[in-house]
Amino acid sequence: MKIIALKSFEVEKMNNLVILAKQGDKEAFVHLIQENKISLYRVAKGILQNEADVEDVIQITILKAYENIRKLKVSEYFKTWITRILINECTTVLRGQKKVVPMENNINDLATTEDTYTNVDLYHAVHSLREKLRIVTILFYYEDLSTKEIANVLALPEGTVRSRLSKARLKLQKKLNIQEKEGE
Question: What is the pLDDT of residue 50?
Fold first, then answer.
């Protein structure tokens, strides 16, 4: 019961911050960004993988969110709304790239990120998925968004999100089982 009350308090606190930010309170907006920065980083890194592009996209996302926060209709959807802006910016960067360079298997690169992953094999397996599967996987498992929220963020039917998650799970299971057998 205490957990539900605490979560309800956190949601109310975030909604109040969004309301203040919509009224022009810069500190409230900064606090919202601080609360969501790791989530934004994970999603951007999952899509782009290039650290410089990730940083650029996050900055552009924050700027666009700041300029357009008054257009956010439902305060409870701030995280979904800003994630959608981020994904749109990532897509713009991907479209602008003529050539996609695969991520090298360099563990030192992983150590430099803010977000640490305890399972490097899982990290590489997730990042080997096609973009459509990788995005829903990151949003569902790393960002704890529901299939309904993911459908909303990606403007997809909820059934499509569930289907992509299912395909991603099968591919990850297959890939991780193969890596396990090779390691024996």
Answer: 87
38/10: higher pLDDT: 38
Q: What top-level class would CATH report for the domain 117-184?
A: mainly alpha
Distance CA(56)–CA(52), nearest Å, equals 6
The tokens for 176 are 């991780």
Name 113's Cβ contacts closer than 8 Å, sequence gap at least 6. 41, 45, 51
pLDDT at 67 over 50: yes
| Sign of the alpha-carbon torsion through 111, 117, 121, 126 | negative
pTM of the model: 0.69
Tens of pLDDT, residues 118-130: 567 777 888 888 8
The one-letter amino acid at 167: K
Nearest in space to 76 (alpha carbons), one of 135, 16, 152, 15: 15
Tell which CATH classification among 1.10.1740.10, 3.40.630.30, 3.40.50.12370, 3.30.565.10 matches the domain 1-109: 1.10.1740.10
Cα–Cα distance for residue pair 25/69, rounded to 1 Å: 11
